[in-house]
Amino acid sequence: MRLSNRASAIKISGIRRVFELGATIKDPIDLSIGQPDFSIPEIAKAEAHRAIDEGFTRYTLTQGIPALRGKVAEHYVNHYGVNPEEVMITAGVAGGVLTAFFALLEEGDEIIIPEPAFMIYEHWANFLGAKAKKYDTYPDFQPRPEDIEKLITPKTRLILILSPSNPTGSVISEDNLKQIAAIAVKHDILIISDEIYERFCYDSEPTTISKFYKNVLIMGGFSKFAGMPGMRLGFALGPKDLIMEMRKIQQFSFVCAPSVSQRIGTVMMDYDFAPTLARYRTKRDIIFNGLKDRFKMTKPAGAFYAFPEAPWGTSTQFVEFAIKNKVLVIPGKEFSERDTHFRISFATEDCILKKGIDILNSLADNPPAEFK
């Protein structure tokens, strides 16, 4: 069977490989997968049952049900003073990225993305024949606006920012956001801001670059804060002409976001996230305070990830030993050209975090002979 060259541009995710490996290990300490350790609350479950009882299982409008689109727009108006031109509901943020890239990119175009970053952006750019140029955020994982500007050429179609970030847990400072916005204004370039972890900000109030620049496509969703990653519900806000093209592409690909999920989303937009945020701040402190004496690491300010440096060997080598000791973490090369750091997800029970910390610290203190 002949397969397309485009398909070969997308690599199998190492994250999924670790996930599958975990299924073969008895009682693993799983700090690998980026999904919350909670599900939707009872009020959302009741809404899902109500939707099913009402037969709300058919196609919706391609752009999403009006009630949810209105709730999403209202959130950005009330919290950030941002009144988007258009809103659409997507099949997860991944579905939004796909439709946006299909609407924007031609072969030979360039996009500017952070290093490190979740791999989906580079893979989809490669699939479409575009090139991802990377701005280095090591060691503190804050973008340096001058480095972004150096990468801009006549072929540049968009600048991507992640805040809070997967895999680093970093939150871009407001001053940096303003500087990046000024660069985009100067060069008239679209910014895509992935804000899926928007509500997971531990040391500052959430913000958005769209406060400082109008030509921004915001990507967000419900997988993380609402505890529903398998229900594939996201949203996109931004310029009307772009959203209308994305809507057309979604019509002929995903058709629409899942109908019952959209009903749940209308409830979850108003749900009080403060107790969950406090609980995850505690988890962040457990993982950082537990590892900082033996690992070089930046304290995560958002999301639910830490990205420490491997204490010996490459991150791949260290992760291999961690997995042999039943601790599942992700090597940094899945997100980066460097094989120096590894990703920890602290979205799990506190007792599991503490077990993982003990083993990781023991591995740091007792490297194999070849790394001493």
Characterize the structure shown:
- The chain is an alpha/beta fold.
- The protein folds into 2 domains: 5-40 and 273-362, Aspartate Aminotransferase, domain 1, CATH 3.90.1150.10; 59-268, Type I PLP-dependent aspartate aminotransferase-like (Major domain) (Aspartate Aminotransferase, domain 2, 3-Layer(aba) Sandwich), CATH 3.40.640.10.
- It has helices at residues 5-8, 14-22, 42-53, 66-80, 92-104, 120-127, 145-150, 174-187, 240-251, 259-268, 274-291, 315-324, 350-365, and strands at 29-30, 86-90, 110-115, 131-136, 156-162, 190-194, 216-221, 234-238, 305-306, 327-328, 330-331, 342-345.
- The strands form 3 sheets. It has a 7-stranded mixed beta sheet, with helices on both faces. A 3-stranded antiparallel beta sheet has the order 9-12-11. Strands 1-10 form a two-stranded parallel sheet.
- Helix 11 packs parallel to helix 13 (350-365).
- The mean pLDDT is 95.
Name some characteristics of this structure.
Aspartate Aminotransferase, domain 1; 372 residues; 2 domains; alpha/beta; 13 helices; seven-stranded mixed β-sheet; three-stranded antiparallel β-sheet; Aspartate Aminotransferase, domain 2
Write a concise synopsis of the structure shown:
This protein has 372 residues and is an alpha/beta fold.
What's the helix and strand layout?
Layout: H1 5-8, H2 14-22, E1 29-30, H3 42-53, H4 66-80, E2 86-90, H5 92-104, E3 110-115, H6 120-127, E4 131-136, H7 145-150, E5 156-162, H8 174-187, E6 190-194, E7 216-221, E8 234-238, H9 240-251, H10 259-268, H11 274-291, E9 305-306, H12 315-324, E10 327-328, E11 330-331, E12 342-345, H13 350-365
